[in-house]
Structure formats: structure tokens, C-alpha cells
Amino acid sequence: MNIKINNKGFNLVEMLAAFTVFSLCILAILNILYQAMNVETNTKNIDIALQNIRIIENYLKYSNSISFNDSGIEVINNNLINNNDNFVSLNSEPLNNLKFNKPELFERNIKAITLGESIENASSSSNYNQRIAVFTITLRWKEKGFYRKLTIKTTISKDRR
Questions:
Q1: More confident residue, 27 or 75
Q2: Minimal CA–CA distance to 82: which of 50, 111, 116, 46?
Q3: Hey, which of 12, 122, 147, 158 would disulfide with 116, CB 3.0 to 4.6 Å?
Q4: Which residues contact 155 (CB under 8 A, 6 or more apart)?
């Protein structure tokens, strides 16, 4: 057996194979970085949405924009609550005086019912169920052509705001 060792260096095929492996490694690293940036962006938008929902929650609790009576809750400003699936701009009336974080990114939908309406077979004679309002606050934003949304339910009672 006569084995010859060629000491001329790499041939063209070996160089192309090495370059291909190197390129794939670089692309894999870039993909990992890109995915990490996407996760960070998603997390930031969720954090901002949570902050904005807390602002809306405090507005509902302390603005006297709702009142309680024996038949349920009465919303003073009709533009605040929409018990349908329509979304409006986050800083539209009556929330336009509040300072939100990046309001141009978000749309809102706020629904309100009393606790008695949310519990099946609630006693109609029970006035207690009419003293608690259940608000469903939903914020949505567009990310890469798709809507993402965050929904929080909160309660406000007549006795303790």
C-alpha cells in the first residue's frame, strides 16, 4: 500500500464546504439573536399593556364615571363602555386626558356587567349582586400583521371603591 499525502493545501471543494458550514453557523447565530429580540419586544408590549390596563382600572375606580342603583350599574359616560366587540383607540373619549404609555399602539374594549348578571340563576331579590360591577378590559395591538390582545377582569363594589 502506497499512500501519498498531498501537501498543497485545501482543494476547492473543501473550501466551499468549510465556507458553507461557516455561513450556516453565522445564520444560526443571527436567527437566535432575532428570536431573542422578538421575545423582548413581545414582553415589552405586554408590560406596557398591563400598565395601561392598570391606568384604566384606577380611572374606573376613582373617576365616578359609574354609579350604582338598585337595577344595576349606570355608566355616566356612554363612550367609556361598549358591550360589544368593537375596539376604539386607547386614548379616545373619555380617557383622552389620561397619560398612557404608547397609546398609539393600542386599542381598547371595556365591557361592564353586574355580578348578578354574571352568575347564572342569581337571586333577583338579592340586592348584593347589583352592588358589584365586573369590568372586562381588553387591550389589543398589532404585531407583525397579527393582533395580540390582553384581557383583565376587575371588580368595583358600591361599598368600597
A1: 27
A2: 111
A3: 122
A4: 115, 132, 133, 134, 135
Other CB atoms within 10 A of residue 115 CB: 18
What pTM was computed for the model? Answer: 0.66
The alpha carbon of 27 is separated from its chain's Cα centroid by a whole number of angstroms, namely 31
Contacts for 69-76: CB closer than 8 Å, 24+ residues apart: 69/130, 70/127, 70/130, 71/130, 72/114, 72/116, 72/117, 72/130, 73/112, 73/114, 73/130, 73/133, 75/112
CA 115-159-112 angle, to 5 degrees, is 35
Which residues 6+ apart lie within 8 Å of 30 measured at CB?
none
Residues 6+ apart with CB under 8 A from 79: 92, 93, 94
Residue indicated by cell numbers 353586574: 114
d(CA 90, CA 95): 7
pLDDT score of 130 = 63
Residues 6-57 have pLDDT tens digits of 566 667 888 888 889 999 989 998 888 887 776 666 678 889 999 999 999 9
